[in-house]
Design brief:
Bound molecules: fe (ii) ion, zinc ion
Number of strands: 20
Strand order of the largest sheet: 7-8-18-11-20-9
Radius of gyration: 25 Å
Helix content: 25-40%
Shape: globular
Oligomer: single chain
CATH superfamily of the largest domain: Clavaminate synthase-like
Largest sheet: 6 strands, mixed
Strand content: 25-35%
CATH architecture of the largest domain: 4-Layer Sandwich
Length: 419
């Protein structure tokens, strides 16, 4: 009898996000000396190789894996030899020489396959900088449609409301919580609803009156706040940020938001050579306070292993001089002398600036009491026009893994409820 491996399937999946995994059937399995070859139905001519050591290492039976969490119990031995391999329409079953028995769902094998004859058929293509489940937007996008939003009551009081927010947040990188009471506490509660608050030098919650410079950061003044991502000088910048303007007697002060992924995509399409530099050269960033000094390195556009951009990092004021490590990154990309490297890199930055400070990408909106904005600090840049008068803005943040974890957990819960 085959055993059901639910816990493991939930905890170790999603390496391939394609739709194949729902209906795939292995049509044949062949043994060779150290691996299994699996031919996939619906993917003509595509096979995957699974080494016996890998298969034994990833057995998810309750002796090898703790069922509730999918955490490993088995410490892998070097030798893994099968006695017999059989398969039906759903699973491959292996009896090992040491007497142990393992089962692997075909769909699980495909999701977790690591070696194929034709990877292009089942992995996302690296000709795109973006995942298929997000929507890129520019300056005009929200002119013809309402920006994503959820009602405060629904958001605070139901899992559906929270999931609705998180799905839009992932898709667009922002979501308004409408009718949030114009108070600090209500705003902080909105953020706590997603996960534990992130504490930075600025605290875990903050309230700022424009023009009060006691913190010593020019983001607090009433002049123009240049476009940036927050806390770029930290190794892992906060992920989800909340801005809620709770006192508002001012003129000017419109906020600007830019979808950094959309800009990255545009550069990738229009100036691929510039894109190479902006996504491969890491630059030093720094912030110093009287009692703290933060330093790190970032790329303007950080790709994952599949070449998709997962982070926008931009902060003109906290950028440090181009150094020898940045120079070697540039030379590795361009294969040229330092003179050419510097001039080409400044050209690429100029191009980026022309897009950021032009009118094509910046979504302009005045933040007002009652509309708490949650936005993705790893994706969006934000800034503000100069203002005169009184403006109190409060906010807080959670780490990226917190909002992603909450989203995945609620998605799984919703799936279980519907299935
Ligand atoms: Fe900021
Ligand atoms: Zn096992």
């Amino acid at each position: 009898m085959f055993m059901v491996r639910t816990a493991r399937l939930v905890t170790r999946s999603n390496r391939i996000s394609g739709s194949y995994t729902n209906f795939i059937r292995a049509i044949s399995v062949a043994k060779d000396t150290n691996s299994l070859l699996v031919n996939w139905d619906q993917l003509k001519g595509v096979w995957s190789r699974f080494h016996y050591q890998w298969l034994r290492d990833n057995c998810a039976c309750p002796k090898c894996c703790y069922p509730d969490t999918g955490q490993r119990i088995l410490r892998m031995q070097e030798d893994a030899r099968p006695n017999s391999v059989i398969t039906d329409n759903e699973r491959v079953e292996i009896s090992w020489k040491d007497g142990h028995n393992s089962q692997y769902k075909h769909s699980w094998l495909l999701e977790n396959s690591y070696y194929h004859n034709n990877i292009a058929n089942i992995k996302p293509s690296d000709t795109t900088t973006q995942r298929s489940d997000i929507v890129l937007w520019d300056a005009g996008y929200f002119k013809s449609r309402q920006p994503p939003s959820v009602e405060y009551e629904e958001y605070m009081n139901s899992d559906e409301g929270l999931l609705k927010m998180l799905r839009q947040f992932r898709r667009y990188g922002l979501c308004f919580i409408h009718n949030t009471p114009a108070s600090e506490e209500a705003t902080f509660d909105v953020v706590r609803r997603v996960g534990p608050l992130r504490r930075t030098y600025y605290g875990d919650v903050w309230s700022m009156v424009a023009g009060n410079m006691s913190v010593g950061d020019i983001a607090y003044w009433s002049g123009l706040v240049d476009l940036h991502t927050d806390n770029i000088f930290l190794t892992e910048a906060p992920g989800l940020l909340a801005f809620h303007c709770i006192e508002c007697e001012f003129t000017g002060g419109e906020s600007l938001f830019i979808d950094g992924f959309c800009v990255a995509d545009h550069i990738h399409q229009t100036q691929p050579d510039h894109f190479q530099l902006l996504s491969k050269v890491s630059l030093p960033f720094q912030m110093q306070f009287k009692d703290a000094l933060y330093q790190t390195r970032k790329r303007f556009f950080q790709p994952n292993h599949e070449g998709q951009i997962i982070e926008t990092n931009y902060n003109y004021i906290d950028r440090q001089p181009i150094d020898n490590r940045a120079m070697s990154d540039m030379q590795a990309v361009l294969d040229c002398d330092p003179d050419k490297a510097i001039s080409t890199f400044y050209k690429a930055m100029d191009y980026l600036h022309s897009l950021l400070y032009g009118s094509q990408f910046a979504y302009e909106i005045k933040l007002l009491p009652g509309a708490c904005l949650l936005f993705d600090n790893h994706r969006l840049l934000h800034g503000r026009k100069p203002l005169t008068g009184h403006r109190k803005l409060c906010g807080s943040s959670v780490n990226r893994e917190e909002w992603e974890s909450k989203l995945k957990t609620l998605e799984r819960q919703a799936q279980n409820n519907s299935g």
